[in-house]
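Whether sequence alone determines local backbone shape is best considered at the level of individual chains. For completeness, the protein is quoted in full, as a sequence line and a line of structure tokens:
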Amino acid sequence: MASTLRIALVQMAVGEVKTKNVARAVQLIKEAAGGGAQLVVLPECFNSPYGTNHFPKYAEPVPGESTTALGDAAKKFGVFVVGGSVPEREGDKLYNTCTVWGPQGNMLAKHRKVHLFDINVPGGQVFRESDCLSPGSSLTTFDLPHCKIGLGICYDMRFPEVARIYAKLGCKVVLYPGAFNMTTGPAHWELLQRSRALDNQVYVGAVSPARDTDASYIAWGHSSIVSPWGEVISTCEDEEAIIYGDLDMDYVNKVRQMVPVLKQMRDDVYEVTAK
């Protein structure tokens, strides 16, 4: 098994024209592949503005036009692609859904956001995804030649049980396409990434859309990669950018040997399990 995985987080600008968003995503996947990335990760809602008023309008089946374009790009450029998320329509329900594509153009995984973003911060952010979205009901991992990877979407990052289960399943990387806002972003975005990485001795990658101050929902940006030691090893500001990280799986093993918390869990006293 290869020890090092080069990943790219694509903090792309998202506009109101779906076809332009998808074309831009494909262009940036090409650029990231040219930068040596083996795995390219897009942000939450890469094909759609983020908002409950937008989700029904932009929703499509999965696989559908936006996601199959990612499979074509993965095959064309010879990379794995984690497709951020798109609003997914299945029957009369809508989901916030991430797809993963392999270099053969095949879909490796599909994750529906498990925890819906319903918050009310007086004087700050008020939002209710549950007004139009349904929650997913399962956790999602996929295998690369380098490692096993766990998936969450944005608000899923606030639930430490998910990342702990992924670590127990053997994941060395957990990815969170997300779109934190100007209230929760500066307060919690980096803190949550470092906490999930440190607690579970995994690499964490969290990728946001670029900030658009004219949008009804303004994303914080600051896509980042955090090491299993809790260090931010790559990040950016709020503009469109691609950040890279070389994730060393031997280093994950080293950290887990130095501070063996995953071996020292007391399953006789407490246990976190997936249903």
